[in-house]
Amino acid sequence: MARKISYKQAINEALDLEMRRDPTVIVLGEDIVGGAGAPGELDAWGGVLGVTKGLHAKHGNRLMDTPLSESAYIGAAIGAAACGMRPVAELMFLDFMGVCFDQILNQAAKFKYMFGGKAKTPVVIRAMVGAGFRAAAQHSQMLTPLFTHVPGLKVVCPSNAYDAKGLLIQSIRDDDPVIFCEHKALYGSEADVPEESYAIPFGEANIVREGKDVTIVSYGLTVHRALDAAEKLAKTGVQAEVIDLRTLSPIDWDTVIESVENTGRLVVVDEANPRCSIAGDVAAHVAQNAFGALKAAPQMVTAPHTPVPFSPVLEDLYIPSADAIAAAVTKTTARALAA
Amino acid sequence: MTNNPFPLSKDELLAAYRTMRTIRDFEERLHVEFAKGDIPGFVHLYAGEEACAAGIMMHLTDIDRIASTHRGHGHCIAKGVDVHEMMAEIYGKSTGACRGKGGSMHIADLSKGMMGANGILGAGAPLICGAGLAAKFRGDGGVGITFFGDGASNQGTVLESMNLAAIWNLPVIFVVENNGYAESTSVEYATAVDSYVDRAAGFGLPGVTVDGTDFFAVHEAAGEVIRRAREGGGPALLECKTIRFFGHFEGDAQTYKAKGENDYNRENRDCLRIFANRVTSAGAVSEAEISLVDREVAALIDAAVESAKGAPLPSPRELLTDVYVAY
């Protein structure tokens, strides 16, 4: 039965259900229990933002607080996965990949191929992504393109509570290493989420709004900005179709191409920096594979090529806005309107 | 067994010798074959360090995991990886241990508990903590051994992992194969402590240093720390002071070594000679029995090289397979 719960609760529920289902699922990370060895309460935090709160009471030592040693514990999660466990490691902020990237890039991502297909590494690395928290340059980045670039990794970034639950369950059951990106600005957002367990397959984009004039492709927080833009555009008579990619690796090219073939116009919205981004990737793929369908040049709406600024007035400018998305749509329709 | 003063049976002594001889011949032969230009990429030879791999791995079974290094052939052989498959892998052939997709630096056989040679120095330490964690959750009594050199001993991953293993009381052994050189840089220059036992102490770990050219010293010390870890006593560090007969990689002119250093070591500090002299002079094993192993190993290596050379190359479709389990 569905009821409204938050994105954060949905993640908690997915972890709980999978830990109940499969004894090889373990969860480790910094402060994911909170208070380990301290004189006060155990499960004091349940993660820095409380995502794993309450799981320790249900699953005991299958949740482990780690020292602040990202290389060691992310690597340990990967090693345990290669030895038959299904660890879910929380990296807290994806920005911290900088201190443990070798274990992800050169170990987890490579084992299967490098060992001639004889290894599998079913590890999930959960981490917060994205701006909007006034957390500045080292706690706010959308680093998804760095991971989608790497063969062997899967990259997931849900935009709502329903997807968060189903995609995390799929991530844990998946036999390949998964980078599970949780947008911190979405933790409080609610959706109808079934109580029971369900898995959302990877590589299946979600058409969150149908339209015939332009295709807007996005993922994560900016799906909501795209929907806001589509709402505004509808008032001007432009019907935008909005596609939520949900998973960036694998990526659902078919849904994107099919939509562009119907609309003839593409706007890609990506909270990542623009160079070598998801936006650039999608625009290039469409240009190469659906050029004949395009009535205008694809547009990219991204963060600027800058670090994430601290001051709220600057940070608000940094994240792609509904107005910027609407303006990009207008660019793709301008020629048609003028003609 | 009256004339066997060793803590191993005659069969075990011969098995240890066979392991070391197989590693030595494998590496000496690669040295020759590489110079001919038939082997792609680069190889890092383990010759001179055989007593470390053999002395440690004799205490392990397939449920025990090891994480190896770029200099991993010896660890593979001692852990039971098939010599033919290893040789074919080094030649880039489809019959290789990794079907030609890994090469010398990435030979692995998870069914034997061999989690891979590794081209990234110090990367095995976190991975083996995971192996130890898995063994602990399963309660199967398995242990994990990570090997690294004096060079990689200064990687943060190794230091972080020693702390993690200590606080979680993991069944993990950190083995420093200290051959004195991080590529071309000496351990005296690059490592601030005189003894790795001191470094282990900094992480609350027991540590022991042994002469890595003495199989029996390695075997005894490894036996103690492995037994302790298996019984829940937690991690430890084992430093084996050893010798690298060849360069960092094949083709290394080794001008950073002292003049005559390699010759001196081969003459006086060869772990195989030391072992053979000890067991034969004690009368535990005859010279004829040693010679028989030598001949059998020579034949095995000949056959492995021959079959590797004649083995098929990977088919072009192999480029695209094995990236994911499912995508």
From TrEMBL, chain A:
Superkingdom classification of source: Bacteria
Pfam families per record: Transket_pyr, Transketolase_C
EC number: 1.2.4.-
Record keywords, A-Z: Oxidoreductase
Spans through the membrane: none
Top EC class for this record: oxidoreductase
Record's keyword annotation contains Phosphoprotein: no
Residues covered by the Transketolase-like pyrimidine-binding domain: 5-189
GO molecular function, one term: oxidoreductase activity
InterPro entries: THDP-binding, Transketo_C/PFOR_II, Transketolase-like_Pyr-bd, Transketolase_C
Transmembrane helix as UniProt keyword: no
Protein name per Swiss-Prot or TrEMBL: Alpha-ketoacid dehydrogenase subunit beta
Source organism of this protein record: Ancylobacter oerskovii
Automatic annotation (TrEMBL), chain B:
Pfam families named among the record's database cross-references: E1_dh
Keyword terms: Oxidoreductase, Thiamine pyrophosphate
InterPro entries: DH_E1, PDH_E1_Alpha_Subunit, THDP-binding
Dehydrogenase E1 component domain mapped to chain residues: 19-316
UniProt KW Lipid metabolism keyword: no
Cofactor: thiamine diphosphate
Chemical reaction(s) catalysed: N(6)-[(R)-lipoyl]-L-lysyl-[protein] + pyruvate + H(+) = N(6)-[(R)-S(8)-acetyldihydrolipoyl]-L-lysyl-[protein] + CO2
Highest taxon above the source species: Bacteria
Record-linked PANTHER family: PYRUVATE DEHYDROGENASE E1 COMPONENT SUBUNIT ALPHA, PYRUVATE DEHYDROGENASE E1 COMPONENT, ALPHA SUBUNIT BACTERIAL AND ORGANELLAR
Function text: The pyruvate dehydrogenase complex catalyzes the overall conversion of pyruvate to acetyl-CoA and CO(2). It contains multiple copies of three enzymatic components: pyruvate dehydrogenase (E1), dihydrolipoamide acetyltransferase (E2) and lipoamide dehydrogenase (E3).
Protein name (database record): Thiamine pyrophosphate-dependent dehydrogenase E1 component subunit alpha
Source organism (scientific name): Ancylobacter oerskovii
